[in-house]
Design brief:
Layout: E1 2-8, E2 18-23, E3 28-34, H1 49-64, H2 71-88, E4 102-109, E5 114-120, E6 124-129, E7 134-136, H3 145-158, H4 172-180, E8 203-208, E9 212-218, H5 229-239, H6 241-254, E10 262-268
Antiparallel strand pairs: 1-10, 2-3, 3-4, 4-5, 5-8, 6-7, 6-9, 9-10
Helix pairs in contact: 1-2, 5-6
């Protein structure tokens, strides 16, 4: 197989809050996207919770991961380390907006030609089979979170729960705080944030190498605002990660769109 990888920080950031693992020894490949914090915490090196969370997962799957563990067990173990690290820094883990968190998309080449995968959040794994069919193996659980959060609030109000009117959540910070409270809950999204609630929500499965032509693993910074995930796959497959990223960055600049860290791995099977 041939592996191409790419990682680039957004222009307005000094470091990327994404991380990447290319563990050839254990045949593990993946990307992690730290959720930009709402609170202003910085560690002694000046790093925020998003950087720490994604880097911690990268470090775990690069070196600490034990070969007899499944990817789900690996995510659970890294999540516990993240919890303990927040405890060390006295992070208030009862308030969801204080939690350090990261999305994830990881694959592992197993025995007997099996590729297992596990995912959280809006990191995505897309596959093309030998017949040219393109399919997302994972679901983006962050997509439309604002609409789902609003629907959840409406449902709560119908049940008599007292909460602010919708105008309150037009403030972007209040909206983000509320969205974080829905992490790994119905109506919400999935993310590793140190809490055990994440375990039932990890998307996972497997495919066989013999069926695969190409696998793409990306963070949401590589999503195009006007392409489906399948169209994004086709563009990256044609241009490669580097050229596609440059073209997307130029498009975002010209249209005054928010720019994010961009990270991906494309694996082509011979």
């Amino acid at each position: 197989m041939k592996i191409e990888s790419f990682l680039s920080a957004a222009p307005h950031k000094s470091v990327s809050e994404d991380s990447i693992v290319l563990n050839e020894k254990l045949n593990i490949y993946g990307v992690f996207d730290g959720a930009t914090p709402i609170t202003p915490f910085k560690d002694e090196n000046g790093m925020n919770g998003a950087y720490i969370a994604s880097a911690l997962f990268k470090d775990y799957f690069s070196g600490l991961y034990q070969n007899d563990r499944s990817l789900i067990e690996g995510i659970a173990a890294a999540n516990r380390i993240l919890r303990d690290k927040m405890k060390k820094y006295k992070v208030n883990q009862e308030k969801y907006e204080h939690l350090w968190s990261t999305c994830a998309a990881i694959i592992r080449f197993e025995n007997k030609g099996i590729i297992s995968f596990a995912q959280l959040g809006d990191c995505m794994i897309i596959a093309e089979d030998q017949n040219g069919r393109i399919k997302a193996l994972t679901k983006d659980t962050v997509k439309d979170i604002n609409n789902r959060a609003k629907a959840w609030r409406e449902e709560q109000r119908k049940q008599g729960v007292n909460m602010p009117a919708e105008e309150f959540y037009q403030d972007s910070t209040e909206q983000r705080i509320f969205n974080r409270s829905l992490a790994n809950k119905p109506y919400g999204y999935t993310v590793a944030n140190g809490k055990g609630e994440v375990l039932p929500y990890i998307q996972h499965g497997h495919v066989t190498i013999s069926e695969m032509k190409t696998l793409l693993i990306i963070t949401d910074g590589l999503f195009h605002p006007h392409y489906s995930i399948e169209e994004t796959f086709k563009k990256i497959d044609k241009s490669g990660l580097y050229l596609y990223s440059l073209e997307l960055e130029q498009y975002e600049k010209l249209n005054n769109l928010r720019q994010d860290d961009k990270t991906g791995i494309i694996i082509r099977f011979k």
